């Protein structure tokens, strides 16, 4: 969740979308993070690839029959494509280009099917050394699938069944009655590993939701949902840019509303003011509540006349009476301090300091007005 550098594209194909769906209520941000988790790391994939390649190569060497030679060749091809596609996807993700997510997941399914085929033909051939080797490899792969891909529990279940079930289906034709016990053991194993994938997914999504909510609370005001000081700093990276301007707003008469009507009414008033200010913002503007009845608006506009017009519109909007319940109507004003990045520096702390000083002047000159901070001496 924290690292947004690697951006893997969500799947487009309907089947792959269904396989990677983590639930109806999973936010888009978490879904994208879960998709990223399916790609894993190159060393992790390399370990799985080496495992199946060694097993298929050893089996083909021991039993050089067409069915095993074909399995080995197909396994080499699929593994090479998976590694190559992972490398290509990582490069594309780093450059924020579209990644071949559908094809990568499809190759994962093909890899599981290849392992299932190897297990199937080994049972039919009745070489129990080979069957034991492939069976242990399959069990290890199934565990890896469950714990590596639980970002997509449906995909986990399908890959587990694809990798293990063909061998189970071949058991009745193996010629060994004792092997029929696998028909009892395997379903429990497949179901339990699939359930583990779903449970791990729920735990992961719950944790990611908590992280997301904690990050939101750390950067947003709990009452109004606006950015707080930390959120404003994070949104701008501390450097607003030369063409920015900052309005520092302080409500006039808010304390009287709190004293007369109570804190609940004061909270309703702050929420109403936040809503009105939101409606005045452009697409590139930011609105924050720094605490109490102090608000900040950061805008791209740098024309002084346009900024003063904008300030007057905010002042008029905030000054319209507020209905706080069925029988309470209150009126407040707003004092505004304005600082410009072109005159006071592009650092957000400097802008806040200059706008705060201008706000103090606006209060001193009678309140309910906008005052522009003095330009810094050259």
UniProtKB/TrEMBL annotation:
<dbReference type="InterPro" id="IPR029787">
    <property type="entry name" value="Nucleotide_cyclase"/>
</dbReference>
<feature type="transmembrane region" description="Helical">
    <location>
        <begin position="101"/>
        <end position="122"/>
    </location>
</feature>
<feature type="transmembrane region" description="Helical">
    <location>
        <begin position="128"/>
        <end position="147"/>
    </location>
</feature>
<feature type="domain" description="GGDEF">
    <location>
        <begin position="242"/>
        <end position="375"/>
    </location>
</feature>
<keyword id="KW-0472">Membrane</keyword>
<feature type="transmembrane region" description="Helical">
    <location>
        <begin position="178"/>
        <end position="200"/>
    </location>
</feature>
<dbReference type="InterPro" id="IPR043128">
    <property type="entry name" value="Rev_trsase/Diguanyl_cyclase"/>
</dbReference>
<dbReference type="InterPro" id="IPR000160">
    <property type="entry name" value="GGDEF_dom"/>
</dbReference>
<keyword id="KW-1133">Transmembrane helix</keyword>
<feature type="transmembrane region" description="Helical">
    <location>
        <begin position="154"/>
        <end position="172"/>
    </location>
</feature>
<feature type="transmembrane region" description="Helical">
    <location>
        <begin position="42"/>
        <end position="62"/>
    </location>
</feature>
<dbReference type="InterPro" id="IPR052163">
    <property type="entry name" value="DGC-Regulatory_Protein"/>
</dbReference>
<feature type="transmembrane region" description="Helical">
    <location>
        <begin position="68"/>
        <end position="89"/>
    </location>
</feature>
<dbReference type="Pfam" id="PF00990">
    <property type="entry name" value="GGDEF"/>
</dbReference>
<keyword id="KW-0812">Transmembrane</keyword>
<protein>
    <submittedName>
        <fullName>Diguanylate cyclase (GGDEF) domain-containing protein</fullName>
    </submittedName>
</protein>
């Amino acid at each position: 969740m924290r690292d947004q550098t690697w951006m893997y594209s969500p799947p487009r194909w309907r089947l792959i979308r269904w396989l990677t769906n983590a639930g109806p209520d999973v936010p888009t941000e978490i879904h994208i993070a879960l998709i990223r988790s399916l790609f894993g790391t190159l060393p992790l994939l390399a370990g799985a690839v080496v495992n199946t390649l060694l097993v298929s190569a050893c089996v083909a060497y021991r039993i050089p029959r067409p069915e095993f030679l074909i399995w080995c060749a197909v396994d080499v091809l699929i593994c090479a494509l998976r590694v190559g596609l992972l490398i290509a996807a990582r490069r594309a993700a780093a450059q924020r280009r579209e990644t071949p997510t559908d094809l990568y997941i499809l190759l994962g399914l093909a890899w599981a099917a290849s392992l299932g085929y190897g297990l199937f033909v080994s049972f039919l051939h009745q070489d129990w050394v080979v069957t034991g080797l492939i069976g242990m490899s399959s069990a290890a792969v199934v565990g890896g699938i469950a714990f590596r891909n639980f970002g997509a529990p449906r995909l986990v279940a399908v890959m587990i069944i694809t990798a293990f079930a063909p061998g189970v289906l071949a058991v009745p034709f193996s010629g060994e009655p004792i092997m029929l016990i696998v028909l009892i053991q395997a379903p429990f194993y497949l179901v339990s590993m699939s359930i583990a994938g779903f449970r791990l997914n729920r735990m992961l999504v719950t944790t990611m939701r908590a992280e997301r909510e904690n990050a939101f609370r750390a950067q947003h005001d709990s009452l109004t949902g606006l950015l707080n000081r930390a959120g404003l700093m994070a949104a701008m990276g501390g450097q607003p840019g030369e063409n920015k301007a900052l309005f520092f707003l302080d409500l006039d008469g808010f304390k009287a509303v709190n004293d007369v009507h109570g804190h609940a009414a004061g909270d309703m008033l702050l929420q109403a003011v936040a809503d009105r200010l939101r409606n005045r913002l452009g697409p590139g503007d930011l609105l924050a509540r720094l605490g109490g009845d102090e608000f900040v608006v950061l805008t791209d506009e740098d024309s002084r006349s346009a900024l003063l017009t904008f300030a007057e519109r905010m002042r008029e909007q905030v000054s319209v009476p507020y209905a706080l319940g069925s029988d309470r109507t209150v009126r407040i004003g707003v004092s505004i301090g304005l600082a410009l990045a072109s005159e006071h520096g592009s650092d957000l702390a400097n802008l806040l300091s200059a706008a705060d000083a201008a706000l103090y002047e606006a209060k001193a000159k009678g309140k309910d007005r906008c005052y522009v901070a003095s330009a810094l001496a050259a």
